[in-house]
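User: Thanks for the earlier help. One more: Ubiquitin-domain-containing protein. Can you show the sequence and predicted structure together?

Assistant: Of course, both are below.
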Amino acid sequence: MKVTIKTLQADSYQIDAEPTDTIRVIKSKLEESQGFSAHLQKIIFSGLILKDDDRTLESYGFSEDKFLILMINQVCIASKGHSMVFFEQSSSAEKSKK
């Protein structure tokens, strides 16, 4: 099936997936096709962050007529070696910078 992934900045991507694919597999496919590091991805479906990478699309009730939302975490290093994580919506412009 085709899985549509959207961003809040109106970018849209499609990947081929199976209902039995895990969220980890979806993140990996997005990394391969779009260059977004899998460990920085947050995937949202029906208002929920899909935190369990081992659950399948079908276990969340996902079907081809629905879509996922992608957000990318940005990590910044603060003073004195502390790190801060910011949630930033991915965009085509960011992708082209890589």
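User: Great, one quick takeaway?

Assistant: Confidence is low (pLDDT under 50) at residues 90-98.
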